From TrEMBL:
UniProt-recorded name of the protein: Pectinesterase inhibitor domain
Cellular component, GO annotation: extracellular region
Domain Pectinesterase inhibitor per the UniProt entry, residue ranges: 28-182
Major site of localization recorded for this protein: secreted
Location in or out of the cell: Secreted, Extracellular space
Database matches in SMART domains: PMEI
Entry coiled-coil feature ranges: none
Amino acid sequence: MALPLCILITFLVCSLFPYSSVARNSDMPHNLVRSSCIHANYPDLCLRTLTAYVGPAKTPNDVAKAAVSVSLSRARKVSEYLTNLAHIRNGRSGREQGALSDCVDQLTDSVDQLKKSLSELQHLRSRTFRWQMSNAETWVSAALTYEDTCLDGFQKVDGKIKMDVKRQITNLAKVTSNALYLITRLDESRGKGS
């Protein structure tokens, strides 16, 4: 009786082993995102946005590209929202309208910088890696500066529009800040081997 039980247990353990290996491999992208986001400026936001977005991330570069893509997508949405808001002029002061128009321009520039950075990350080459990473970091940093500059125009503006723009831009800036962190992390991890 003991022998068949032993054989049954051995069979079960051996037959389940491949499935546990598959389960661990399917968690790999999630674990990569988690380990990448843990020290980001906004780790919960990083984990939340990238877990939903990243798909089959196999490398830190995949995570960095996903982070820039998320930032780019949000920047486009905020830019579109603010552009539409700028076209509605009824009851708005000149200062408010000017701040809104300037913000739209700043976000257009931010989108351009994020697009350049994403393109650079999609075409990394080992012999030009450091130069490309410097470009990507510079462009995402510039995008973050444009986002911050957008808010500067609203310092002397009060009201609902200011609060709405501040909420939208602050959220965008947090996502962009996380993208910059993940690019810097990618650069530093690769740089250790150089």
